[in-house]
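As a warm-up, study this chain.
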Amino acid sequence: MTTTHEEPFYKRLSFNLITLALLALTLYLGKGILIPLFFSILLATLLLPVVNFLQRIKVHRVLSILLSILISMLFIVGIVYLLSRQIGSFLEDSDSIKERVTELIQSFQGWIDDKFNINASKQNKYIKETTDNIKEQGAGVVGKTFGTLTDILSFVVFIPVYTFLILFYRGLIKKFIVAVFKNGKPGKVEEILYESRVIGQYYVLGLSMEMAIVFGLNCIGFLIVGIDYAIFLALVAALLNLVPYIGMMVASLFSMLITLVSSDTPSDVIWVAVVLAAVQLIDNNFLMPMIVGNRVRINALVTILGVVIGGTLCGVPGMFLAIPGIAVLKVIFDRVEELQPWGMMLGDDVKEEKAKKKKPIT
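Now compare it with the structure written out below.
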């Protein structure tokens, strides 16, 4: 008679936590290599139906991949061009904005003097000390800026190359992944790959459609209110909305601040907040469920934690990649028996059991 000894719970939990820690360390140390690769995988996943369509109509394999990448690059360049044009028009009015900021600072200093008895000279002294400290850290700021520009350059260069190679060798990559897990069930591995690809397509395409609709709604709202730089603020808010939860908070603060320094009517700031709140309400309750659907079902707690952890490990790109990454992990966890509790924790399927009413004893 044979007996099976199940591994203790704490050993399984320790192994899972160590694995997650190693993954986080790998992301942090190798983000310069992995982040462009992850974006390339997302882009390749999105372009795969286009490549397949072009190949079905007898377009050469290499040419179909190049055409798909070219179309996507033109779309991204169009967004960057529109944003740069709006930033240029915003900077043209920098002198009037500086005057408005000076007026606001003076009125704010007067309010501080009245409430806290700190005169303007002391306030200017504090500001000067802060400015001197910033100047002393200028070299570090320049270094970080150079590092950011280097990251952007690596994105521009490597993402199209990686995307082309992933699409070109997609069959080989699939065979490799299936062969690596040959001791398991090949059908389950292929199912995970298919579901992960579908989630990536739904997420990226859904976010693109959502961004366009949010941009349109923001434009309409800001134009009705009659604020300056309506298109610029609407585009910035739509782009920041790509980062769940945190992005819209930053967009709201930024839009309200720009409106405050550019408008003579203080109530415009409140109306900007109202417009952004209304659009966010529509987005959360109608656009996301309709466009993205039920493919990416991650609960709010895990979403916020994922965005924060992704931002801590990999910066803004990590915040954007957090949600599709967690969604792919959920697909894997749901299909591996030992990891199913983790998949359940990531999901948002909350079922409240109604308490049974007991009949009184008579």
